[in-house]
């Protein structure tokens, strides 16, 4: 069973926030958290409504009846925290007068549980405990409407309309995103590497290094930079999914040289084809038909490779095409 303290902190609520939403005094909430008083049935029901729980799914400082504070020393442990709650509430509601002086509102009377012995409380024991709110549902509704309006930039007053009648602005429809893969006159557009996190980087460009001459070996090498440093990281690149960038039928060549496990995707209705090399695992078979975005393998370092990456080629018939502007990763 979760404690009230854990539930309040996990939702980033201060005592004052929770007091505003429930109309239960911030001091009373602090006393309940520290075991100085027990929540009554109405307060538990209101807190459960605000926190999205059932009344029996949380407790104050401990399960069961709250134990009485037996000595002055025990009470003094909680006094600083309770006084801090009272002071923070007072400062939050104070105003700044001309001349730089703060105008403090009257301090609220400190309520002490009747369970505290006279030796621990002295004159404070005679102070009355705050009465439970009478209409908790209406209070929560009005406080919630006020808070929503304040966040939206409206005045927090004038909360006469019930919550159900508060107009909810309709979100502006998001523009329809362009398709991730599309076949154009320049070639298939889309990123062949699907990274769970990080960015796709080119580790070797078109027509340089092992990709020269471009007419024969033209391609680009793609890998994953997971921390934004601008450099590929083997740990993030290994076994990243590789997808087809266009529809077509598959031709698989395993353990080839220099591409290792290599997959060709030949477009059905045009001379365009794409090559995917150095795969660790191939998830398709020859003559299989695939669609754009279908996974065809996982990145590896098979064949002539210095580390995990995808060698990506684009061909238009017998013409090798530079895919740098087409990958859009």
Evaluate the radius of gyration. 34 Å
User: What does the main sheet amount to?
Assistant: 10 strands, antiparallel
Compressed to H and E, one letter per element, the order equals EHHHHEHEEHHEEEHEHEEEEEEEEH
Number of helices: 10
User: Which range best describes the helical content: under 10%, 10-25%, 25-40%, 40-55%, 55-70% or over 70%?
Assistant: 25-40%
Mean pLDDT comes to 75
Overall morphology: elongated
Structural class by SSE content:
alpha+beta
* Spans where pLDDT lies below 50 across 5 or more residues: 62-76, 92-97, 104-134, 154-164
Number of beta-strand segments: 16
Report how far the terminal alpha carbons are from each other. Answer: 47 Å
Strand content: 15-25%
What would your notes on this structure say?
This protein is 27% helix and 23% strand. It has 10 helices and 16 strands. The strands form 4 sheets. Strands 7, 8, 9, 10, 11, 12, 13, 14, 15 and 16 form a 10-stranded antiparallel β-sheet that branches. A two-stranded parallel ribbon has the order 1-2. A two-stranded antiparallel ribbon has the order 3-4. Helix 2 (15-22) crosses helix 3. The longest helix is centred in the first third of the chain and has 22 residues, at 72-93. The chain is elongated. Mean pLDDT is 75; it is low at 62-76, 92-97, 104-134 and 154-164.
